[in-house]
Amino acid sequence: MLGYTITQWLFGILSFLSIMFALMVVFSRNPVNSVLYLVLTFFCIAGHYLLLNAQFLAVVHIVVYAGAIMVLFLFIIMLMNLNEDTEPQRTWITKIIAGIAGGMLLFVLVGSLKGTEQLGLASYGSSQIGLVKNLGKVLFSEFLFPFEIASVLLLAALVGAIMIGKKEIK
Amino acid sequence: MIAFLIYKLILCVVVFAISLGIAAYSTLWERKLSALLQDRVGPDRAGPFGLLQPLADGGKMFFKEEIIPNVSNRFLFVLGPSLVMLTALMTGAVIPWTKDIYVNGHLYSMQITDINIGVLYLFGVVSVGVYGIMIGGWASNNKYALLGAIRASSQMISYEIAMGIAVIALIITSGGTLSLREIVEQQDAGLANIVWQPLGFIIFFVCALAETNRAPFDLPECEAELVGGYHTEYSSMKLGLFLFAEYINMFISSAVMSAFYFGGYNFPFAHELYDALGLHDGSKWIAIIGFGAYFTKIAIFISVFMWIRWTLPRFRYDQLMKLGWRVLLPLSLLNLAITVVVEFIRGNITF
Predict the structure, then answer these.
(1) B295-325, pLDDT tens digit by residue?
(2) Buried b or exposed e, range A76-109, using 16+ CB within 10 angstroms
(3) Which of B123, B134, B176 sits opposite A71 (nearest CB)?
(4) Domain ranges, residue B189
(5) What is the pLDDT of residue B161?
(6) Smallest Cα–Cα separation from B110: which of B124, B126, B94?
(7) Which pLDDT does position B284 carry in this prediction?
(8) Based on the structure, what is the number of domains in chain B?
(9) Taking CB atoms and an 8 Å cutoff, what residues of chain B touch A68?
(10) In this structure, how many other beta carbons lie within 10 angstroms of the beta carbon of residue B285?
C-alpha cells in the first residue's frame, strides 16, 4: 500500500491519534473530557508498545495507567464537580506569559533533540525482549539493583500518601 | 489465509452468541432459582416453563421509551453502557472453550486467541470496564448516579488488588505461564489447581463477586440508599445493556474460575473415559465432551452466584472496604507466601 508496510501504516495512524488526543487533553474545556482524552492517549501508547512486540508492557500500561491511576483522577475530578463555569477566567497577561514560557520550553526541547544522534530503527518483530519471560529474566538479573531501588521509592511514596491521608497522627 | 479468517470469524460469532444466550437464560434461571429459594413458582407464563421469558423481557426493553436527560452529556451518556457491554464481551476472547479439533488434517483451536499474556489481558479489560460505569454515572448528571458510579469504581479497584495477588499465586502453581490455555492444559496432566490453591480460590471467588457487582457487593445499585445507583437515569435498552453486561460478566467470571481452579474442560478420569470410548486426540467427540464438562462447571458457578445473592444481605460500605483491604489483601499476601514455600518443597521453583 503506497510503498509502506502495514506496521508503518499502523505506526503512522497510532502516532497521529496519540498526538491528537494529547492535544485534546490540553484544549478541552471540561476537565472530565481532558481525563478521558488522556486515557485514549494511553491506549494509543499501549498500541505503540504492541508494535514494538512488548505485549507485557502494553497490557501493564493499560492496567496501571488507564485502569487504576486515571480512574482515581476521574474520581477526584467528578467529586470536585469542576466544569466550565467554575474554571477561573485568565487575563491576557497570563495568557501571553504562558505562551512565552511554553514556547521557550518547546525551543529547549527541539534544541536538545537536534543535538542527539539519530538512532537506527530497532528491528521490531525479531526482538523478543518485550515478552514476559525475557523481561523478567533481565529485570531480576541484570537490572536487579535499580529494580529494587524503584520498589523502595514506591514504598516511600505509599507511606507518604498514607501519612497525608490520615486525619490525625497518633 | 482466507480460511483462517473465516474460521476465526465463525468462532467469534459463536462465542458472542453463546455469551448472549447464556446471559439471557441466566436472567430466567436467576428468577426461577430465587422463586425456588423463596417458595414461589417464578415466571411460567411465557412459553413452556417460562422459557420464552428472556425474549419477552428483551422485547420489552427495546420497545420502552428512551429518555436522555436534558442536562446530561449526550455522547458520554450513550458511551457508558456501550463501553460496559463492549468490555464484558471482550473477555471471552482468551478463554479456551474446549480441546482442539482435527478437521481434514488441520488442527483447529477452540479459542479465539491464545495470547501469552491472557491473564493480564483479562485484568486489562476488566479494569477498563470501570470506565463504562463511571462515565455513565457521571454523564447522567444525577447525585445518586454519581455516588453509585464512585462506589462501583472504588469497589472494583479495591478488590482488583486482592484478586491480582491471588492470581499471582495461581500462576506460580501452574508453572509461571500467563496463557489461559497452558493453565488449563497443565491441570490435565496433574491435579486441578484447587488442590494447591484452596485459599486462593476463596479469595478469587469473593473478589469475583465484588467485581461483577453482585450481591452481597451490589452497593453501586443499592436501591435502598441510591434509588438505582449508576443506572438511575437510564431507560430502555441502555438500562438493558447495563443489566445484561452484569450477567455476561458473571458468565465470564464463572468460566475463568473454572479454567483457573477446576481445570476448565478437563475432568477426573477423562483419559480413562476417552480410552474406553476409543477416542483419539483431536476427535470432535472429545471436544464435545470437554465442552459439556466445562459448561457444567460454569453452570454450577452461576448457580452459586445466584444462590449467594438470594441468601446473604448486602454489606455496609465501611464493611465492604474493611473486607477488601484488611481481610482479603493480607490473606492473599499470606496465600502468596505459603504458595511459594509449598512450590519450593514440591520442587517447582528453583533458585
Answers:
(1) 899 999 999 988 888 888 888 888 888 888 8
(2) ebbeeeeeeeeeeeeeeeeeeeeeeeeeeeeeee
(3) B134
(4) 2-346
(5) 87
(6) B94
(7) 79
(8) 1
(9) 127, 157, 160
(10) 13
User: Would the pLDDT of A122 be above 70?
Assistant: no
In whole angstroms, what is the distance from residue A81 CA to residue A87 CA?
Answer: 11
Q: Is residue A70 exposed (0-12), middle (13-18) or buried (19+ Cβ within 10 Å)?
A: buried
Taking the alpha carbons at both ends of chain A, their separation in whole angstroms is 68
Would you say residue B109 lies in a domain?
yes
B116–A78 C-beta distance less than 8 A: no
CB contact under 8 A, A74 and B146: no
- Is position B351 within any domain? no
- Reading the block at residue B250, the C-alpha cell is 458473571
Contact A78 B146 (CB under 8 A): yes
Q: pLDDT (tens digit, 9 = 90+) per residue, B256-270?
A: 998 888 888 888 777
Express each pLDDT in B212-235 by its tens digit. 888 787 776 766 677 777 777 788
User: Does B135 contact A at CB distance below 8 Å?
Assistant: yes
Q: What is the pLDDT of residue A104?
A: 93
Please list the alpha-helical segments (H only) found in chain B.
2-37, 53-63, 74-90, 118-139, 143-173, 180-189, 198-211, 223-226, 236-261, 270-277, 284-309, 317-322, 329-346
Q: What is the pLDDT of residues A59-105, one digit of tens each?
A: 888 888 888 888 888 888 887 766 656 666 677 888 889 899 999 99
CB atoms near residue B349 (< 10 Å): 15
Closest residue of A to B131, CA-based?
Answer: A71
Chain B: residue nearest A42 by CA? B128
ipTM of the modeled complex: 0.81
Residue B237's nearest CA partner among B78, B28, B74, B20 is: B78
- Give just the sign of the alpha carbon dihedral B113, B115, B118, B124: negative
Q: How far is CA B247 from the centre of its chain?
A: 8
Contact A75 B150 (CB under 8 A): yes
Cis (ω within 30 of 0) for the bond into B220? no
